[in-house]
Write a structure and sequence with these properties.
Chain B: Its cofactor is thiamine diphosphate. The structure holds two protein chains of two kinds. Chain A is α/β, with parallel strands linked by helices. Helices cover 44% and strands 8% of the residues of chain A. Chain A is built from 13 helices and seven strands. The longest helix of chain B is centred in the first third of the chain and has 15 residues. Chain B is globular and about 65 Å long. Classes of the chains: A alpha/beta, B alpha/beta. Chains A and B meet through helix 6, helix 7 and helix 8 of A and helix 3, helix 4 and helix 5 of B. The complex binds thiamine diphosphate and magnesium ion. The site of thiamine diphosphate (TPP) has 14 residues of chain A, from strand 4.
């Protein structure tokens, strides 16, 4: 029998994770459900409640909505800043708001996040100053925030390399008796990189409390998912490492938060890592410099517009009576104020100091760096004299 | 003073570091029960337990990336790469994260760790087991790169590497592992950034590091018969580099040969030669020459002796140091575009 996706799907017919894996099939407790977990219909209508993924508290969902609205506004503002030449480049996560915010809300403030370049929205959702988040893209330094204080690693560009750091950090924390969880973001394309596999495997072998959160937005720049994997879906990659996995509708905010909450609890309880794949879609090009029309057609993008996560949550919260016109307007106002503040602060020209180039290569500069620093100092002094 | 091998001194350094600093963790491939394929971690797991010294999955990027995360959590990882060429899978982690994290975060995060690499040849090893990979690391700002040539240095430099606030690539010359020397542990020798004159001489300076140091010393001994009194400088730490000690020596002797086991092109030996001639031009009676491995993939065991810098090749090179102030015949026939 060939293992076509269909065949694998048929081999795993259950829709609920049993409390203990079936004795006959050691993989059964590890496999994701055959269909992505969904608690809201795309139009915001709630689906029947389920006991494997209880709905998060309504207050949490309201806060999620607020952060998604602010996050989206931040994202739009960052794209605008790029057009004005304030940022060198910006990878938008528009369309992925449920994932960006859900991951942050599922964690405690003292948990660690290992983000990629795609996660600017998640970072501002974590409360990191947006100017510090955009330092990298503005170009006045690499990482603009304090990773140790914010418990957030620098945004990672070498694909998948952060997956191993998360394993080490999480193991190191538990080794020292702390119950920190690490959440590593990763894209669909990057799951083909070796470091994804090494990271998940290390985390599993060392029982490190890590949640690997794959945002499957269907493309790696231009390359579609079908070129990355022949697996039924990316959540099926966990079973080979002994890691329980789940897939979720990444545009269903309620389901994303429910699934990630469970994954984080699993890791924190000392059961080791967990892999979550969220099916979502990036509405914008890969970055502002990309031309997405070369590899995907407008119909496809339009179809995803109908599954907008922000509208979906808004509809649901309104139906639940947790949101009304006044609240929506108030939150929109917060988002506008946030964007205005960002715009204004990004308009100020950052000061950069060439002498700082030598400061953080080593704890103490080597004699060779001291020599080069003196050379640059002399060059700058001569240039300043020339200007005078 | 006691006689011991470099392997024993390295083992003692790891044991003492584990004993004195709870944050130190030693891990890699086969380093646990087996004690490493070169037995450098012998007995550490039995003595300190399998939480302090442990085997990992076979994945070098994983090992180094895991160490990054552990260092971020406040621990002090000391990892072993099984052989030089098998550290290459970890290169992305080393070049993009280990070396850069302090810089990328303006010093808010640092990842002090030691990456131990048994390196270089001279042991009759088959392919992929004998690479001299120091240039890759020395070319990567943010890393310190250290290579001991004596038993005392092996102990002292490894202890210093583990205590250092920056990541250190610690290159252990395989062919010296089981060479014995005199040492009094816990030895403390010159700190990082200091080269050491291993043999004083007046006629020319041989600059060498790691596995090339004993060869240079042997050549200096043999040179006495030819009437040359050669000084030998052991670089010890490639990064940070000690320009001063080397330049002082060359200014005294007026002649310099740089010896490295690695292939020569674009290598550390080339860097040293360039630095010496920049600093010592007016003291030099001859161009700075180099003796290195050939610019070939590391050869099969039965051919490695032709590849490696030898006493004869060093003496032939010393002979070309303009003793009679005549053009070097080699450059009359080679290296011209015509
Ligand atoms: C090791 C490595 N190779 C290539 C790149 C260039 N690159 C940047 S983003 C990207 C696509 C990644 O796609 P995916 O993992 O799906 O994440 P997404 O951008 O869709 O969020 C590529 C190829 C890189 N950053 N790192
Ligand atoms: Mg993608």
């Amino acid at each position: 029998m060939t293992t076509t996706p269909q065949a694998v799907r048929r081999a795993s017919p259950r829709t609920r994770r049993p409390a203990t894996p079936a004795a006959t099939d050691p993989a059964a407790g590890l496999l994701p459900q055959t269909e992505p977990v969904r608690l809201l219909d795309p139009d915001g209508t709630p689906l029947p409640a389920r006991d494997d993924y209880p709905e998060p508290p309504i207050e949490a969902l309201r806060e999620m909505y607020r952060r998604m609205v602010v996050g989206r506004r931040f994202d739009t503002q960052a794209t605008a800043l790029t057009k004005q030449g304030r940022l060198a480049v910006y990878p938008s996560s528009r369309g992925q708001e449920a994932c960006q915010v859900g991951a942050v809300l599922a964690l405690r403030d003292d948990d660690w996040v290992f983000p990629t370049y795609r996660e600017s929205m998640a970072l501002v959702s974590r409360g990191i100053d947006p100017v510090e988040v955009l330092t990298l893209l503005r170009g006045d330094w690499h990482c603009g925030y304090d990773p140790a204080a914010r418990r957030t690693a620098p945004q990672c560009t070498p694909l998948a390399t952060q997956c191993v750091h998360a394993a080490g950090l999480a193991y190191g924390e538990s080794y020292q008796g702390r119950d920190t969880v690490a959440l590593a973001f990763i894209g669909d394309g990057a799951t083909s990189e070796g470091d994804f596999h090494e990271g998940v495997n290390f985390a599993a072998v060392f029982k490190a409390p890590v949640v690997y959160f794959v945002q499957n937005n269907k493309y790696a720049i231009s390359v579609p998912l079908s070129r990355q994997t022949a697996a039924p879906s990316l959540a099926y990659k966990g079973v080979g490492y002994g890691v329980p996995s789940e897939q979720v509708d990444g545009n269903d905010p309620v389901a994303v938060l429910a699934v990630l909450t469970r994954a984080v609890a699993h890791a924190r309880a000392g059961h080791g890592p967990y892999l979550v794949e969220a099916h979502t879609y990036r509405m914008e090009p890969h970055t502002n410099a990309d031309d997405a029309t070369r590899y995907r057609d407008a119909d496809e993008v339009e179809a995803w517009r109908d599954r907008d996560p922000v509208a979906r949550l808004e509809t649901y919260l309104r139906a639940r009576g947790a949101l009304d016109d006044a609240a929506v307007a108030e939150i929109a106002g917060q988002a506008e104020a946030y964007a205005a503040d960002l715009r204004e602060r990004m308009n100020a020209q950052p000061t950069v100091d060439p002498m700082s180039l030598f400061d953080h290569v080593y704890a103490e500069p080597t004699p060779q760096l001291v020599e080069q620093r003196e050379q640059v100092r002399a060059e700058l002094a001569a240039a300043a004299e020339g200007d005078a | 003073m006691a006689t011991m091998t470099m392997a024993k001194a390295l083992n003692a350094a790891l044991a003492d570091a584990l004993l004195e600093d709870d944050r130190v963790l030693v891990f890699g491939e086969d380093v646990g029960q087996l004690g490493g394929v070169f037995r450098i971690t012998d007995g550490l797991q039995a003595r300190f337990g399998d939480k302090r010294c442990f085997d990992t999955p076979l994945a070098e990027a994983g090992i180094v990336g895991f160490a990054v995360g552990l260092a971020m959590s406040g621990l002090r990882p000391v990892v072993e790469m099984q052989f030089d060429a098998f550290a290459y899978p970890a290169f992305e982690q080393i070049a993009s994260h280990v070396a850069k994290l302090r810089n990328r975060t303006r010093g808010k995060l640092s990842v002090p760790m030691v990456i131990r690499v048994p390196y270089a040849g001279g042991i009759g090893g088959v392919e992929h087991h004998c690479d001299s990979s120091e240039a890759y690391y020395a070319h990567t700002p943010g890393l310190k790169v250290v290579t001991p040539a004596t038993v005392s240095d092996a102990y002292s430099l490894l202890r210093e590497a583990i205590d250092d606030p920056d990541p250190v690539v610690f290159l252990e010359p395989k062919k010296l592992y089981f060479a014995s020397g005199e040492a009094q542990l816990p030895a403390r020798t010159e700190p990082f950034g200091r080269a050491v004159v291993r043999r004083a001489g007046t006629d020319a300076t041989l600059v060498a590091y790691g596995p090339a140091v004993p060869v240079a010393l042997e050549a200096a001994e043999a040179a006495r018969e030819e009437g040359w009194d050669l000084e030998v400088v052991d670089v010890r730490t490639l990064v940070p580099f000690d320009d001063g000690t080397i330049a002082d020596s060359v200014r005294r002797t007026g002649r310099c040969v740089v010896i490295s086991e690695a292939q020569g092109f674009a290598g550390v030996g080339a860097e040293i030669a360039a630095r010496v001639q920049e600093r010592c031009f007016h003291a030099l009676h001859a161009p700075v020459l180099r003796v290195s491995g050939l610019d070939i993939p590391y050869p099969a065991p039965m051919l490695e002796h032709t590849h490696l810098p030898s006493v004869d090749r060093i003496l032939d090179t010393v002979a070309r140091l303009q003793w009679d102030d005549q053009p070097d015949p080699r450059w009359l026939t080679q290296g011209s575009a015509a």
